[in-house]
């Protein structure tokens, strides 16, 4: 990583910024961005507002890229992101006198999913790439039934897509035949409704209506994401403009506290500790 890059962005794995004025609890807090981080942010906000009934927290999704854009244009206090900020976003932020600070709040595994009736159980990274490049087009090529593969992907504003693009696609383009969807929930629903489909979601979005695939013989789980054996894992972030103050600081401190990390775990993601 270039020295100039780190001079612009401060990264913190776990942050505890103590001290918040009583008046902060009369404020509002706006959170935008990643649909992967969204369940954690929503549940944490629900509990946090019960602790601070005079506070109003507004949360919306839209993808990591849109969250970071909102931070840069000043329309959000916290930007949720399932990827790290890009250099071009840092440059734009600096031009707008915005100084992004990243706070790691959880770890996630991106899991390839198929319909429960699909008999495939394990897939390699090379096979995933070939499917998403439309080089493998039928499940029978992988030992499955004679069904044409329907490719479901996230759209390009998604942090989940960015990680998939890097770790699975090796920065090659997804086939133009892929259906691009705006959220983890939409991908899960699309795979639920199509016996031919394959998609990918954050581990917190797994449910009984979709089937998770092992990747290169490794089952996606809390343990394999933490120990690094699962090959498609990544940290989840909340970004602020500079070191957070007031209610933004207090809320992030809550998310990374033991109570907040319990929410991370309950939502199906991997806590930091």
Number of spatially distinct domains: 2
Instruction: Determine the CATH topology of the largest domain.
Output: D-Maltodextrin-Binding Protein, domain 2
Query: Structural class of the helices, strands and pairings?
Result: alpha/beta
Contiguous helical run count = 10
Q: Spell out the CATH superfamily of the largest domain.
A: Periplasmic binding protein-like II
> What would the average pLDDT be, to the nearest integer?
91
Description:
This protein has helices at 3-8, 38-51, 64-73, 87-95, 125-132, 159-167, 184-192, 222-227, 246-256, 258-266, and strands spanning 10-12, 28-33, 56-62, 78-81, 100-114, 122-123, 150-154, 179-181, 197-202, 211-212, 214-215, 233-241. The protein has 273 residues and is α/β, with parallel strands linked by helices. It folds into 2 domains: 3-107 and 234-266, D-Maltodextrin-Binding Protein, domain 2 (3-Layer(aba) Sandwich); 108-227, D-Maltodextrin-Binding Protein, domain 2 (3-Layer(aba) Sandwich), CATH 3.40.190.10. The strands form 2 sheets. Strands 1, 2, 3, 4, 5, 7, 8, 9, 10 and 12 form a 10-stranded mixed sheet that branches. Strands 6-11 form a two-stranded parallel ribbon. The longest helix has 14 residues, at 38-51.
